[in-house]
Amino acid sequence: MKEASFTLIKGGRVIDPANGMDETADLLIEGSIIRAVGRPDMPAECEVINADGLIVAPGLVDMHVHLREPGYEYKETIAGGTRAAAAGGVTSIAAMPNTNPVTDDPSVVGYVLDKAKMGGVVNVFPIGAVTKGLNGKELTEIGLLIKAGCVAFSDDGKAISNSSVMRRALDYAKAFNALIIQHAEDPDLSKGCMNEGVTATRMGLPGIPAESESILVDRDIRLVELTGGRYHVAHLSTAGALNSVERAIKRNLPVSCEVAPHHFALTEEAVRGYNTDAKMAPPLRNENDRNAILEGLAKGVVEAIATDHAPHDEDSKRVEFCCAANGVVGLETMLCVSLELVRDGVMSLSDCLGVMTYKPSRLLGINRGTLSIGSPADIVLFDEKEQWTVDANELHGSTRNTAFHDRLVHGRVKRTIVAGRTVYEDGQ
Amino acid sequence: MLKSQIWNRKHLLGMADLSREEIISILDTAASFREVNRRDIKKVPTLRGKTVINLFYENSTRTRTSFELAGKRMSADVINMSVASSSVKKGETLIDTLANLEAMNPDVVVVRHSESGAQEFLAKNLDAAIINAGDGSHEHPTQALLDLLTIDNHLALMGWESFEGLTVAICGDVLHSRVARSNAIGLSTMGANVRFVGPPTLMPAQVEEAFGVRVFHRMEEGIKDADVVMMLRLQQERMLGAFLPSVREYYEFWGLNHDRLALAAPKAIVMHPGPMNRGVEITSKVADDLSHSVILEQVANGLAIRMAVLYRLCGVEG
Q1: Whether the Cβ atoms of residue B76 and residue B50 lie closer than 8 Å to each other
Q2: Is B241 left (phi over 0), alpha (psi -120 to 50) or beta?
Q3: Using CB atoms, which residue from B93, B178, B205 is nearest to A200?
Q4: Residue A198 to residue B120, Cβ atoms within 8 A
Q5: Which of A20, B45, B176, B270 is such that its CA lies 20 to 30 A from the CA of A330?
Q6: What is the CATH number for A288?
Q7: Sign of torsion, CA A264 A267 A271 A273?
Q8: β-strand A123-128 against A152-154: which pairing, if any?
Q9: What CATH homologous superfamily does B15-139+302-313 map to?
C-alpha cells in the first residue's frame, strides 16, 4: 500500500473559529487528515501550496441545500450541486429531502450517498423527511434513517403545520437526539407571491405577511417547551420570528435558527420589475426585518448561515411572477455575500466563518467545520479582498437562478480541498 | 391631428410610467379622435397597413371590443385571440405564445392577463410593442386614461379649472383592483386628491404609503364632499376566502345609493369601469341617473383613448 501523501499549505492566515485561532501559520495535511498547524517540519516528500496573502479556513458547511436528485435531474444533479459547492468553498452540504422519491426511506438515503460518493466532489449529508412523502401526517423511521446516514429531519419546502404531528415529531426525535428543522410558514397565511407591504401593494401582487412565519415559530417554541425536542428554524426571515428564537434561547430551550444570505443582503425591493430570480419562500422581507437579522447575527442569536440553495431550470423561472418556482441558488455566493457582514462591521471575520463552519456542524453532529488536528482535511483558501462581479452565466452549478447577478462582491475562493484533495481551484 | 414630441414610448405598461405632460398629450389626442367617432363615416386611414393583435387571457367584452373598434376605425388590421385558461394549461407558456405571434410581425400586441406583471415580463423578453389591457391586480392604464378624460370633460361643470384640488373617492374592492391602482396613480400625477373607500379586508397593505391616498372604511365619510365617486366592481367570489360575509351586508354598508350620494359634492359625477353589479355596489337608480352618472361617457371615451394610444404606439407621424 502506498504511504499517505503530505501537503503543506504554507504562509496563509489560518482562521479556525472552533479553536479561536487566527494567525499566520502552515497547515500540514497527511492523506485526508489535518496533521499539524503552526510551524510543522516539512516531510521529505511534500506538495506545497502557497497561501501567501490568503485566508486558510475550514471548508464551509451549508446545512440547507437542495440537490434535486433523485427526481429532478433536469434542474440539478448531485454532481452539479456539489460542483457549485466546491466553487463556493463549501465542503459539506446537508441535502434536503424534497426529492422524488422523497428521502423518507433508508433506500433513498443510500442512493443519495452512493451518488455523492461516485459523482460528488464535496461531502453530502442527507436530511431525512419528518413525515412520509412530506405529507405532514405520518412520521418517518427516524431511527432507521439516522442509521442510514441522515443528520437531521425536515419537511422543508413545506411546513409541518399540524400541531399534533409537530408535537409527536419533536417528542419522538428525542429518543435519537435528532434535530427537527422547520420550514416555518403557515400554509394559509403564506398564499402570496412576495412579502406583504408597500412594494407588493404597488405591484399588485398578493402579499405574505411576516406573521406567517412568526406564528408558526411561536407555536413550535411552545411545543418545544412541552416536549424538549431539538428545534431549528430554517431560513428565518422576519424580525418577529428572530425575537421569538432569541427569547427561547435565553430560556435555555433547545431552539436555534439559520438565516440565508439573500435574507440579510437583500430586501423585497429586489422583486421590482417582477424579477423571478428574487422569488423564494419565505420571501425577501423589508428593511426592518433585514436589520433584525443583522442584529441577530451580531448578537450570536443566529447559529448558522445557510443558503437554501435551490436550483431551478430556466423554464421554471421565465414565466409570470406568481407562476415562477420559488428558490435561488446560493452556494457560490455564500462566502462573498456573507463577507459583507465583516466589511459592514456586523461581525468579526472569525465569527462570520464560525456560523458557516463549526456551528452548523455542531447542530448536525458532524465532524466537520474545524481545522483541529485529526479532523478531515476540508479546507478553503480565499482572498478576502479580491473584487469580482457575480455573473449568473459563470456559475458552476447547472442553473443560473441567482438573486445576486451583477452584484459587486469582495472575497474570492482560490482553492477548495475536501479530505486532502483539491476539488476546485480558481481559474482552473 | 396633434403632433406631440412628448410621447415616444414603445409600450404602454402602466400609469406609473407616465408624466403629467404625457397624460395631457394623450388626452388631447383622444379628444381629437372623439370627433371621428361622431362622423357618419367613422373611419380614417391613419393606421392602414398596421397590424394589431388583441391577446386576451381573461374574459372581456368591453375592453376587447373597444380596442378592436379603435384599431378598425383607424384602418388597422385587427386580430382577436382569446386564450381560454384551459388551453394555457395544455402547456404553451405565455412567452412561447407571444414569440409565435411576434414571428408574424404585428405592430402592437394588446394583452390582458390575470397575472400582475405579465405584460412587463413580455416587454422585457420580446420585441413587440405591448399595450397593457389589464394585468392581475396591478394596472389597467387605458381605463385610467379614459377615466381621466371623462373627469376632464366635467371639470368645468363641477367648478374646477384643473385636477388640482379635485377629490376623487374610489370605492369598493381596492385590493383586487387594477382600475383603482391605475386611477390612483394617474389622478395623483394630475394633482387630484385620491381616497380609497371600502372594507378593511379589501384594502391592500400599507396602501396609504404605497399610493399617497387617504383610506376610509365607512362609505359616508369616504364620499363626503367628493367631486368624483368611482365605484369598483365587486367579484362575487370574494365571499370565499373570508373577505366578506355576504352581498347584502356589502350593499348595506358600501353600496352607492342616492342617500349616500347626497353626501358628495352637489355636482358630483358617478363612475364605474363596468361591468356593473346593479344592487350590489351601486343601485340602478344611481347608475341610470344622468344628472350624476357618466358611466356611458366612460365607454365612449374608452374608444377615443384606445385610438389615441394605438396611434401613438404605432409610431405614425402626425
Answers
A1: yes
A2: left
A3: B205
A4: no
A5: A20
A6: 3.20.20.140
A7: negative
A8: parallel
A9: Aspartate/ornithine carbamoyltransferase (3.40.50.1370)
Q: Which domain holds residue A22?
A: 6-56+376-397+410-425
In a domain, A369, yes or no: no
Cell numbers linked to A88 = 463556493
Same topology between domain B15-139+302-313 and domain B141-298: yes
Evaluate whether residue A27 is within a structural domain: yes
Q: Are residues A383 and A320 in the same domain?
A: no
| Shared-domain flag, residues A153 and A112 | yes
> Do A194 and A105 share a structural domain?
yes
Instruction: Identify the weakest region by mean pLDDT among A209-218, A258-267, B85-94.
Output: B85-94
Q: Is residue A1 part of a domain?
A: no
Nearest CA to B310 among B145, B143, B107? B107
Query: What confidence tier does B241 reach under pLDDT thresholds 50, 70, 90?
Result: confident
Q: What's the average model confidence in pLDDT over B157-180?
A: 97
Q: Which residues of B touch A273 (CB under 8 A)?
A: 120, 124
Same domain, A95 and A13: no
In a domain, A187, yes or no: yes
Quote the CA–CA distance of A338 and A324 in Å, as a whole number: 26
Q: Are residues A200 and A51 part of one domain?
A: no
Q: Are residues A236 and A380 in the same domain?
A: no
Does the N-terminal peptide bond of residue A101 adopt cis geometry, omega within 30 degrees of 0?
A: yes
Given CATH 3.40.50.1370, say whether it is the number of domain B141-298: yes
Res. B300 pLDDT band, cuts 50 70 90: very high
Q: How far is A197 from chain B (nearest CA, A)?
A: 5
pLDDT tens digits, residue range B264-288?
A: 999 999 999 999 999 999 999 999 9
Residue B94 to chain A, least CA–CA distance (Å) = 7
**Residue contact B204–A200, C-beta within 8 A:** yes
Q: Domain of A420: which CATH number?
A: 2.30.40.10
B116/A197 CB distance under 8 A: no
Separation in Å, CA A58 to CA A181, A202, A361, A365: 24, 45, 11, 16
DSSP structural state of residue A396:
S
Could you give the C-alpha distances from A104 to A97, A117, A136, A394, in angstroms and in order?
7, 20, 12, 34
The chain A residue lying nearest B204, using CA atoms, is A201
ipTM of the complex: 0.93
Inspect the interface and report whether the beta carbons of A322 and B115 lie closer than 8 Å.
yes
CB contact under 8 A, A320 and B181: no
**Nearest-CB residue to A204 (from B93, B124, B178):** B178
Tally of domains within chain A? 2
Write the residue in A197, A318, A321 that is nearest to B117 by C-beta: A321
- Please state, for a pLDDT cut of 90, what percent of chain B lies above it: 82
Query: Tell me, what's the pLDDT at A378?
Result: 98
Positions of A marked catalytic: 308
Residues of A in contact with B113 (CB under 8 A): 320
So where are chain B's domains? 15-139+302-313, 141-298
